[in-house]
């Protein structure tokens, strides 16, 4: 009898534990699953990344040797979804029926397991071989520095050291850190998946303001500014919700539907 009770208890406990870690995947209806699959499974996503880095390399190849020798040239690049592919973290959140938290993000970055965005490694090596320095400016937190450097070094990326990696400390806008690099360097290119990676004017702006500033910079895209695709998250998504991070999934869904433009 005791054995039977124990077995039943164990079955109940293991069923409970299983249901905690493995929600019924057929019941999950997360709007992020499609863009995550675009990043992970669409050859079109890979092609867009190669296109961005091919164009970036073409621009760098036009810089003459004298300019590189005389001036202290540098490029500034973002990390997440520009150089590092973190779609695995997003996929895990969906499969576990969870949403983003800073703890879940840290759990992922602690693994130093991000792969490279297609074309990123070859491009950065090309830039480095030309004698141009690379600065990584990311809004990863400073307590993620060690795991981030480990990840970059695993991928064999040049300038993957503390001096070239400027993470988020107290100031949110990247402009402060960009200015630090610009003090001693002539910055010839910026790369990012988020328009905040290029200019402060994009920070916390409405959809229409973001459009206007993008138009104002129209000559820079594909020239000094190289944009990588990120359909999963970013300031474009925050702008949809007017930077209200407290909206429920239902409120977000309603907002998205209201924003659709039909004919
Ligand atoms: Mg990014």
Automatic annotation (TrEMBL):
One Pfam family this sequence matches: Acid_phosphat_B
CDD domains, sorted: HAD_CAP
InterPro entries: Acid_phosphat_B-like, HAD-like_sf, HAD_sf, Lipo_e_P4
N-terminal signal peptide: 1-19
Keywords: Lipoprotein, Signal
Annotated protein name in UniProt: 5'-nucleotidase, lipoprotein e(P4) family
Organism expressing this protein natively: Pedobacter segetis
């Amino acid at each position: 009898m005791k054995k039977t009770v124990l077995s039943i208890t164990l079955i109940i406990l293991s069923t409970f534990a299983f249901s905690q870690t493995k929600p019924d995947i057929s019941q999950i209806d997360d709007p992020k699953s499609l863009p995550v699959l675009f990043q992970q499974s669409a050859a079109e996503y890979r092609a867009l990344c190669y296109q961005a880095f091919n164009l970036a390399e073409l621009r760098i190849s036009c810089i003459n040797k004298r300019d590189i020798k005389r001036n202290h040239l540098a490029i500034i690049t973002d990390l997440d979804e520009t150089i590092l592919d973190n779609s695995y973290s997003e996929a895990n959140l969906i499969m576990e029926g969870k949403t983003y938290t800073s703890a879940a993000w840290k759990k992922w970055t602690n693994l130093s397991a991000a792969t490279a965005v297609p074309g990123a490694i070859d491009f950065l090596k090309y830039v480095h071989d030309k004698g141009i320095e690379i600065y990584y400016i990311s809004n990863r937190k400073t307590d993620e520095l060690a795991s981030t450097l480990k990840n970059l070094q695993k991928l064999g990326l040049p300038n993957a050291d503390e001096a070239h990696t400027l993470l988020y400390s107290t100031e949110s806008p990247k402009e402060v850190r960009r200015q630090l690099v610009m003090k001693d360097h002539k910055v010839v290119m910026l790369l990012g998946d988020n328009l905040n990676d290029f200019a402060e004017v994009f920070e916390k702006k409405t959809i229409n303001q973001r459009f206007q500033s993008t138009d104002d910079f129209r000559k820079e895209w594909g020239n000094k500014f190289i944009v990588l695709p990120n359909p999963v998250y970013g300031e474009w998504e925050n702008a949809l919700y007017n930077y209200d991070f407290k909206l429920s999934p239902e409120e977000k869904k309603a907002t998205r539907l209201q924003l659709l433009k039909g004919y």
